[in-house]
Design brief:
Blueprint (H helix, E strand, L loop, with lengths): L1 H13 L28 H11 L3 H5 L6 H34 L7 E2 L2 E2 L3 H39 L9 E9 L7 E9 L1
Antiparallel strand pairs: 1-2, 3-4
Length: 191
């Protein structure tokens, strides 16, 4: 069975024609010399360091902050607010549960009648604990992602993006098979 698979792969891959192309980029090499001032290998690490010290500072270093800073601070602000709110509510329900177990009145008891049952207090504590943990996780995630984004953006800003770089699709007919012409697609890139 394995030999049939090997033979099928050999026949499949050996049926392709391989064409060589001429080197057309030797004429334009003088125009594309990269100047040492254009490439700064420490730029990505600086951007990541600045973002680690102060969230959003790497985006400011990269001059890409007009739409990213509101997202970063919005994500961090919402996560921190949700963490604090869930933590305070958890403490309220936890205190009420402890007071009720000790036989003392709590804030969820009106005229000796509990508004929320003991099972409801336990359920609320579990849910608020999960919400608090997820809020902390989302704040850490936003913090780490903004560091990674600043570093990646600093890497990408150093690429040459002039107008001479292009990708243009073109079709090349296969003239070896005259009775059944086939057309292939090639992506030609020029520098």
């Amino acid at each position: 069975m394995k030999s049939i698979i090997y033979i099928a792969f050999f026949i499949f891959f050996s049926s392709f024609n391989i064409y060589a192309q001429k080197d057309s980029i030797t004429a334009n090499t003088k125009q594309l010399q990269l100047k040492p001032a254009d490439y700064n290998p420490l730029s990505p690490s600086k951007a990541a360091f600045y973002s680690a010290i102060f969230p959003g500072a790497g985006q400011i270093y990269n001059n890409r902050y007009w739409w990213q800073l509101p997202l970063i601070y919005g994500g961090l602000g919402i996560s921190i607010y949700s963490y604090i709110d869930s933590s305070n509510d958890y403490d309220r329900y936890r205190t009420a549960f402890k007071r009720r177990k000790a036989g003392l009145p709590d804030e969820f008891t009106v005229d000796g009648t509990p508004i929320i049952s003991d099972a409801g207090l336990e359920s609320a504590q579990r849910q608020l604990s999960k919400n608090r943990d997820l809020s902390l996780l989302s704040a850490i995630l936003v913090y780490v992602l903004q560091i990674v984004e600043a570093s990646v953006r600093a890497h990408l800003l150093q690429f040459d993006t002039n107008e001479n770089l292009s990708i243009s699709p073109m079709t090349i007919p296969d003239y070896d098979l005259v009775e059944a012409p086939k057309v292939g697609v090639t992506l030609k890139y020029s520098f």
